[in-house]
Amino acid sequence: MNTEKVTARRLTAEEVSELGLQDDIFVSAGTDGLPLDCYAPAFLTEPGKNSEGGSFAARTVFGEVIHILPDNAEEPGIWVADKAGEEIEVLQSAGILLNLALFVPGGNKESLESLYSAARDAFGAGIVQRWSEETVAVPDVKVDLFEEPARGRKNTSGQNRDRRALDIYPTRVRFLEPSEGWKFIIEPHKEIVDDTPTI
Q: How far apart are CA 51 and CA 70, in angstroms?
């Protein structure tokens, strides 16, 4: 576990209520029932003055949202860096978790194994792990992806379309999300033909 010692002091609920969304704080690093005797860098999910009942919500740099009662002596509380404070152990962000979707043209078991072994050689055998694997045969075709307002008026031209991605494979579409208030329109790919006369 990668930690570093940070000098910090514990805040009272009154002090936390004066914090904003940009203020760096430290909260318990325990996740999903796994108690960890250290802290994680975090930020409040809303300004402290907006919190009610003395309970504050904070999001750690690891994406965990926890609710804290700073004045409860049985809880780890909320801490802020202070040279006049005491030393606490802070969990460091040691890496990045990637969720990958790979399209392998003409893919077979041998090509997938060679991709996996190449990744292990590049990053280390103990680093690269397959958490789940879904092998699906997909058509090797391309589509054009557009966005349209979700509540479009009838009989309007397609001028309000926004071409999000060109030459995209259909399987990638399920990993994308449309903009708020927009929906995806998928059409068979059409090559752009430039018929501008040349001299």
A: 12
Distance CA 49, CA 19 (A): 8
Cβ atoms 142, 186 nearer than 8 A? no
Distance, CA of 80 to CA of 15 (rounded, Å): 10
Q: Give the C-alpha distances (Å, rounded to integers) separating 179 from 58, 67, 110, 159, 165.
A: 26, 30, 38, 17, 13
**Residue pointed to by tokens 């009989």:** 155
Structure confidence by residue, pLDDT tens digits, 5-14: 999 999 998 8
Distance CA 161, CA 185 (A): 9
DSSP 158: G
* Residue 8 CB burial class (10 angstroms; 0-12, 13-18, ≥19): buried
HSE value, Cβ hemisphere, 13 Å, CA-based, for 80: 14
What is the DSSP code string of 50-70?
A: G--TT-EEEEETTS-EEEE-T
**Is the whole model's pTM more than 0.70, yes or no?**
no
**Contacts (Cβ under 8 Å, ≥6 apart) of 71:** 12, 13, 54
